[in-house]
Design goal:
single chain, 329 residues, alpha/beta, Quinone Oxidoreductase, Chain A, domain 1, Rossmann fold, 7-stranded mixed sheet, 6-stranded parallel sheet, 10 helices, binds NADP nicotinamide-adenine-dinucleotide phosphate
């Protein structure tokens, strides 16, 4: 099969199409004939050597795909060969075939194409786990999402609105600002021009939940902005892993400062998230309350440009790779 090799790692130019063996599904796993794969920021880190895959998983990049079930490992009961699915995969998504626990596959949401579904698993699992489970966002509460135009951000804004929360967000330019407002963010702060802490404080006084992928100097501001009982959920540290916060504020306001990574969760935990998504989130695509947002689709052979696009950070929503297109195994 064709897959993307990143050799010894490095800049985007190390990525190239290679030929390799089709993986074989183990017990409880299905083999997917991949149609499209999502490109995620963690792929850039893994390519550069800063994010090694967990033991026992494919060294090939790629954390989410859409495609068709091509073979069943022993004990699989949920899918039949030929079913169209999207899946959160532990690695190996940038390839014509990849294996995944059958419990990490989901049907395509009603009205969503095979192509667009490839960009849903990573962002939906992450937002559901961090905003709704860990952050326990409630209807009527105020959510601050940093990186509002990112793949994660556009899903966080839409889901928070769909569940009745109010949303403020930070972005790096005017086009992203306008887009996030259209998606339903009441406040969209261009952090290159304005101080998000001052803007949110003057409009709302404070927030109940912060979903933060930046860290660094944002930590102190996040903690200052959180209202009594507020929750700060850290999902990345793009702006630095170290920050200084006023611990007295955590104490006095009874804040919860927490975070998580998706890839390290157990198979069972991700399976539980998948079930919750199917019940709570998938129906929102049918009603139009939530939609996939795709910036651009690249052919597998153009993977270097796809990574460069994410590195430029001008995109809004997801960047995808066309691996095998819509055909069957
Ligand atoms: N913990 C988890 O479970 C988990 C799971 C998936 C993803 N993540 C993380 O969540 C983040 C978003 O993922 P994604 O795939 O949606 O990424 P993405 O689409 O590439 O978005 C990242 C965004 O962060 C913003 N940003 C703010 N400060 C930045 C900085 N110092 N350097 C680079 N970008 C900065 C950029 O927008 P502006 O230019 O507008 O600021 C950029 O669009 C990533 O950091 C990823 O590693 C975490």
């Amino acid at each position: 099969m064709r897959y993307i090799d990143h050799g010894q790692g490095g800049a985007a130019e190390v990525l190239h199409v290679a030929e390799g063996l089709r993986p074989a599904p183990r017990a409880g796993e299905v083999l997917l004939h991949v149609a499209y794969a999502g490109v995620n920021r963690p792929d850039l880190l893994q390519r550069a050597g800063a994010y090694p895959p967990p033991q026992g998983t494919s060294p090939v990049l790629g954390l989410e795909v859409s495609g068709h079930v091509a073979a069943l490992g022993s004990g699989c009961t949920r899918w039949r060969v030929g079913d169209a699915v999207c899946a959160l995969v532990p690695g190996g998504g940038y390839a014509e075939y990849c294996v995944v626990p059958e419990v990490h596959c989901l049907p395509l949401p009603a009205g969503v194409s095979l192509q667009d579904a490839a960009g849903l698993p990573e962002v939906c699992f992450t937002v559901w786990a961090n905003v709704f489970r860990i952050g326990a966002l409630q209807a009527g509460e105020r959510l601050l999402v940093h990186g509002g135009s990112s793949g994660i951000g556009v899903m966080a804004i839409q889901l928070a609105r769909a569940f009745g929360a109010r949303v403020a967000t930070t972005v790096g330019n005017a086009a992203k600002q306008a887009f996030c407002r259209e998606l339903g963010a009441e406040l969209a702060v261009n952090y290159r021009e304005e101080d998000f802490e001052a803007v949110v404080r003057s409009a709302w006084g404070g927030v109940d939940v912060v979903l933060d992928m930046v860290g660094g100097a944002y930590a102190a501001k996040n903690v200052r902005l959180l209202a009594r009982g507020g929750r700060l959920v850290q999902i990345a540290v793009l702006g630095g892993a170290k920050g200084e916060v006023d611990l007295a504020q955590i104490m006095v306001k009874r804040l919860v400062v927490t975070g998580s990574t998706l890839r390290a969760r157990s198979i069972e935990d991700k399976a539980a998230l998948a079930q919750e998504l199917q019940v709570q989130v998938w129906p929102l695509f049918a009603t139009g309350a939530v939609r996939p947002i795709v910036q651009r689709v690249y052919d597998l052979a153009d993977v270097v440009q796809a990574h460069r696009e994410l590195e430029r950070s001008q995109h809004i929503g997801k960047v995808l790779l066309r691996v095998g297109g819509g055909g069957m195994a």
